[in-house]
Amino acid sequence: MQYAFPVPESAESGQHVAVITDIHGNLHALEAALSRIEKLGIDDAYCGGDLVGYGPSPNEVCRLLEERAVPTIYGNYDHSIARDMEDCGCAYRDPHDQALGERSIAWTLEHTDPASKDFMRALPFDLRFELAGKRVRLVHGSPRKVNEYLFEDKPAHTFERIARGAECDVLVFGHTHKPWIHEYGGVLFVNCGSVGKPKDADPRGGFAVLEDAGGEVEARIERFEYDVDRVAREIGPSGLPAEYGEQLLAAA
Predict the structure, then answer these.
(1) CA 220 to CA 205: how far, in whole Å?
(2) What does each of the 252 residues of the chain score in pLDDT, given as a tens digit?
(3) b or e along 160-180 (b: 16 or more beta carbons within 10 Å of the residue's beta carbon)?
(4) Residue 171: in which H helix or E strand, if any?
(5) What residue segments make up the domains of the chain, in order of their start?
(6) What global pTM score does this model have?
(7) Which of 17, 55, 128, 249 is the most buried (most CB within 10 A)?
(8) Which residues contact 28 (CB under 8 A, 6 or more apart)?
(9) Rounded to whole angstroms, how far apart are CA atoms 179 and 152?
(10) What's the first-to-final CA gap in the chain, in angstroms?
(11) What does CATH list as the number for 16-250?
(12) CA dist list (Å): 159 to 19, 145, 166, 249
């Protein structure tokens, strides 16, 4: 079921699609993103996964997406938490980050209720739709693996190889929390960034907007303000590592 956001009379002609991803238990950021999408007059919205982890509101995030009937795929975190697995498939930079990550997994497993786990367990690996006559495919990490990191600085031949097997004209994804857009091998790659846990030194949330521009797909990253301080203050009392709040403020 697809949730269509209302289009105001002032909206420009042409179809727009928003793709949100990597919410990570940040309800306030998700609410702000959905509000921004509505104000922009976006026709449809999709979610690229990682609903939970790191943030204090896993159940509320799942409920809101379910209530709004936003078409959603699972991220690596969702796949693990829904199945009560203690490994989220994340890559950590050092032992300190790994220790923090393990605390996040343990907390999220304990505080995600059965209804939310059922919701995430039923999510698909990918979604496909058409825009401007082009095939759009939404995955979390890559078409090859849910937890593959497609950073912008990877060699061009990596993306060209992925493009050959992607079975789409536009590949939309997240997972790295760092947005970028580039064309490789005739495929437009769109990394949406992150709604609830950006890592590009900009604490604002972000999502991708795809537009039918006269038979071609144009993409951009939309940034939005929300009360980051409020979420950071909620993290410590929740039992999650307080450092996660500091990371939100620094977007690191």
Answers:
(1) 14
(2) 233 333 333 334 358 999 999 999 999 999 999 999 999 999 899 999 999 999 999 999 999 999 999 999 999 999 999 999 999 989 888 999 899 999 999 999 999 999 999 999 999 999 999 999 999 999 999 999 999 999 999 999 999 999 999 999 999 999 999 999 999 999 999 999 999 999 999 999 999 999 999 999 999 999 999 999 999 999 999 999 999 999 999 999
(3) eebbeebebbbbbbbbbbbbb
(4) strand 170-173
(5) 16-250
(6) 0.93
(7) 55
(8) 226, 227, 230, 231
(9) 8
(10) 35
(11) 3.60.21.10
(12) 20, 14, 10, 32
- Taking Cα atoms as reference points, which of 252, 197, 250 lies closest to residue 27? 197
Write down the residue that tokens 């993409």 correspond to.
219
Tokens of 142: 């890559």
The structure tokens 């609903």 sit at 51
For tokens 């203690």, what's the residue? 86
Nearest to 76 by CA among 97, 101, 44, 110: 101
Q: Which amino acid is at 152?
A: E
